[in-house]
Amino acid sequence: MTKKDLYTEKQLKNLGNKLRELRLEQGYSNYEQFAYEHNLPRAQYGRYEQGQDLRFSSLLKVLKAFNVTPEEFFKKGFD
Predict the structure, then answer these.
(1) What is the DSSP letter of 40?
(2) Residue 67 belongs to what H/E stretch?
(3) Res 1: pLDDT
(4) Degrees (nearest 5) of the Cα angle 76, 12, 17?
(5) Which residues are within 8 A (CB) of 37 and not within 5 positions of it... i.e. 6 or more apart?
């Protein structure tokens, strides 16, 4: 893997970890339940938490479900 690929993979992993952290903070122990209650595709949301790539519009939809702005989301945990 190139340095750029490693950077991208690291940031996607950070993104997934941050989504999981937000979900747990909001009291959802199960990602499927969170996705179901917020009208998000369950399997796709599960992949986001695993650090797989996603479209920006999908990220915005997820952040809206968490009631978090992109600025708040990216404030810490990314470099």
Answers:
(1) -
(2) none
(3) 65
(4) 60
(5) 28
CATH number of 3-72: 1.10.260.40
Token pair for 55: 């479209």
**Is the pLDDT at 4 greater than 70, yes or no?**
no
Residue-wise pLDDT for 11-35, tens only, equals 999 999 999 999 999 999 999 999 9
Report, in angstroms and rounded to the nearest whole number, the Rg of the chain calculated over CA atoms. 12
Long-range contacts of 20-24 (CB under 8 A, 24+ apart): 20/49, 22/66, 22/68, 22/73, 23/49, 23/66
Residues composing the chain = 79
